[in-house]
Amino acid sequence: MLKKIVWLVFACVLFFSFRSDNPAMQPLKVSDNHRYFTADGKPFFWLGDTGWLLFSKLKREEAEQYLDTRSKQGFNVIQVMVVHSIGEANVYGDSALSGKNIAMPKVTPGNTFGKGNEYDYWDHIDWIVSKAAEKGIYIAMVPVWGSVVKGNHIGAAKAKIYAEFLAKRYRDRPNIIWMNGGDIPGTDSLKTWNAIGSTLNELDKEHLITFHPRGRTQSSTWFHDQLWLSFNCFQSGHRTYAQDTSKKDLNYGEDNWKYVQVDYAKTPIKPTLDAEPSYERIPHGLHNVNLPRWTAADVRRYGYWSVFAGACGYTYGNNDVMQMHKPGEKKTAYGSKGYWFNSINDAGAQQMVYLKKLMLSRPYFERIPDQSLIVGSQGQKYDRLIATRGKNYAFVYTYTGREININTDKLTGTKIKASWYNPRNGQITGIGTVAKAKTLKFKPPGQKANGNDWVLIIDAI
What we know:
hydrolase activity; TIM Barrel; Glycoside hydrolase family 140 protein; globular; alpha/beta; 21% strand; 2 domains; signal; Immunoglobulin-like; GH; six-stranded parallel β-sheet
């Protein structure tokens, strides 16, 4: 009986599915060097936002406001949970599942807008996916959050049926990315995660697939060699150096560039990125709301550190926005005090576009991490310098505004043009043109301090 119901659902989905209204969008692909992404053959820098509860908590007019704002701010990927809880319902009161059974999505046949079923859970998701495509945004869908799989003992068989439903419903949409997992170790329900990943890969050959792990872990630990894993993700998490005491984790502290180094050295080569660093406005370590909160300077640091270390992009997050905190809610997570529609314009969110613009300002696919550019101490913790370069350019990031000593021998030409790039506003200040040398010293503007971050730009002449 269950099998008949499932196939009836699939038939309805296939018959009534519709493509995006933006024919210009193409599914993302991995670049030829397997380090980055391309969209229609052009460089694509992943600038993501964790809009985790977008599908369930926002009405259509709110969803459009959110997507429009993020698009104008330069974001091009939104990470969203499809099923966050086993009893998931959207803002209109419609349930995602029949009988809290992951193998039985509650689908209203068709998309008969204006006939009373346009706020069906899955039709609402369809609408948001289409609206995102109109605005040039990709949706990184988390099929089912890790806690749901763990707490409700969803096995591989049901997970496979559910993944078949998702693949057939969304494989014709150009702006889908599959983000398996959801804040959980891969070893927890390993068969279930592999069933979801393998099924999506088998039925949907067009879209990339990754895995979102728990904090202080990375997908490559469990899934790097799986054929379904197109690229790696890691969650550097929300803890400080002092809070990083778990024996189960890698204990890299806040040094998210270390996860990139691990993934960068693996074969086969696959792109990697920080899919969940510390969020702007969230307490250090999440759970004690009386502790200090992460700021715009912190999210900038995580972005430049990881990308310069070789990541293919970066995902930003905001405590109020990720949970779509609204007025009138009695309960919020992690001490959220602001509302999503205000916090969406926080400084960190608006500054992320400058990272994207910088990375796309020079030949993109030739870029590699290269710490050998740095002469002397590379620095520890917040004093760490991170360097990346192409054939004719180099970028070096300092979070504290410390002196930077550079060996320019690896760049072409006989001279270099140096400039400062301000991550807070994207402004460029010229330093001058000088002859190449094995050691050139550069002192950033301002006094040395956490958050006085700068990028040294060097162009070969």
